[in-house]
Specification:
Elements (H helix, E strand, L loop, with lengths): L4 E2 L10 H7 L16 H21 L6 E4 L2 H15 L6 E5 L4 H12 L3 E5 L9 H7 L4 E5 L13 H11 L2 E5 L18 E5 L10 E5 L28 H39 L3 E3 L11 E6 L4 H7 L3 E2 L15 H5 L4 H4 L2 E5 L6 H21 L5
Parallel strand pairs: 1-11, 3-4, 3-5, 5-6, 6-7
Antiparallel strand pairs: 2-8, 7-8, 9-10, 10-12
Helix pairs in contact: 1-7, 2-7, 3-4, 7-11
Length: 389
């Protein structure tokens, strides 16, 4: 076992060696521009992009022509929400989303509010779930779009995508989902789930940073988006700019691997996550699970609060373990996570929270070590808490 140990896979993942290997030629040997159709350098790049598009489309049950490449999930979400809102605003200017969405989605919605759109932010219960009846009642004749993330990046809540998609289809509303955390980890089928727009990112699934994609439905109905980046009309005019061929090749390979390993990884990593939770809770009192039960959340997610402990102080005790306090406080204002606040976690508990994101390279030995370090660190910090006189 080597230190430090990485358990922050919701933030990013290491590039899989197989992904890195297939990317390498496109930095030097096959460096052509995929839009250069007059010579073999461009042809090879274009072919590599086409193959990657097929792998990504196959993962989510889409057609290759429905995959639009961009710089990552943040851009993908902005293109989906702002592009759809601007394109269909003559039909209505009302959007529905959820208070626990990623900041990329929430900030895009706030931007649209500044442009005169009305946005309904649905609340969630203590598990992070929305009320489908409440979602239905929020729809009005001006609603054009609803956006609900597939898997929450902080507490791992899984959305009922099929039910939401069915509701959107019956009402004639577009349905977007942020699948940055879900893509490659849980089964997704845009056809059967009624998804019109789906955002994804390579670096959450052992691919490179700086590359992502947006699924845009082409039939029943055909979705059009107002482009947010204009230029050479690449990607069907929806996202101009020279294609990041090495990144696209890497993303295609990463999602090809994810599809092949999805069942085995979910079982193995899920057992490691459960073991981590069990060992920590057996060794400590006043430990709280934030969000849904373990068997109802994303299989690699664990978000816990520790009573009578400061989260930042605990992170200092865990210097050789990479975990996240993003689920506890934002770096700018020191305010509790908007997700933990939305599910009713107190400010004190939120500020004593850690998010563990287990991944492909983690082992049983590492889980035991991390659990032991957490137990040791919490007990040490609790001894420093002054007792009431």
């Amino acid at each position: 076992m080597k230190l430090p140990i990485y358990m922050d896979h919701h933030a990013t993942t290491p590039v899989d060696p197989q992904v890195f290997e297939v990317m390498q030629p496109y930095f030097s040997k096959d460096f052509g521009n995929a839009a250069s159709r007059q010579h073999s350098f461009g042809w090879r790049a274009e072919e590599a992009v086409a193959i990657a598009r097929e792998h990504i489309a196959h993962l989510i049950g889409a057609e290759s022509g429905e995959i639009i490449f961009n710089s990552g999930a943040t851009e993908s979400i902005n293109l989906a929400l702002i592009g759809a809102a601007q394109q269909y605003q003559k039909k209505g200017r009302h959007i529905i989303t959820v208070v626990t969405e990623h900041k990329a989605g929430l900030e895009a919605c706030r931007y649209l509010q500044g442009q005169g759109f009305q946005v309904t932010y649905l609340p969630v219960n203590a598990l992070g779930d929305i009320d489908l009846d409440q979602l239905s009642h929020a729809i009005c004749d001006k609603t054009i779009l609803m956006s609900v993330m597939a898997a929450n990046n902080e507490i791992g809540t899984l959305a009922p995508l099929t039910e939401i998609g069915e509701m959107a289809r019956k009402k004639g509303i577009l349905f977007h989902t942020d699948a940055a955390q879900a893509c490659g980890k849980i089964p997704l089928d845009v056809r059967s789930m009624g998804i019109d727009l789906l955002s994804m990112s390579a670096h959450k699934v052992y691919g490179p940073k700086g590359i992502g994609a947006l699924y845009v439905r082409r039939r029943s109905p055909r979705i059009q988006l107002t482009p947010q980046i204009r230029g050479g009309a690449q990607e069907q005019g929806m996202r101009s700019g020279t294609l990041n061929v090495p990144g696209i090749v890497g993303m295609g390979k990463a999602l090809e691997l994810a599809k092949a390993l999805m069942i085995s990884e979910s079982q193995r990593i899920g057992k490691l996550r459960d073991q981590l939770y069990q060992e920590i809770t057996e060794g400590l009192e006043e430990v709280f699970l934030n969000g849904p039960p373990l068997n109802k959340r994303l299989y690699n997610n664990l978000n816990m609060s520790f009573g009578k402990v400061d989260g930042d102080a605990l992170l200092m005790e865990l210097r050789e373990v990479a975990v996240s306090s993003d689920a506890a406080c934002t770096t700018s204002a020191g305010e509790p996570s908007h997700v933990l606040k939305a599910i009713g976690v107190s400010k004190e508990r939120a500020q004593a929270s850690l998010r563990f994101g287990l991944g492909r390279e983690n082992t049983t030995e590492e889980v035991r070590y991390v659990a032991g370090r957490v137990i040791e660190g919490v007990k040490k910090l609790r001894k420093k808490v002054p007792r009431p006189t």
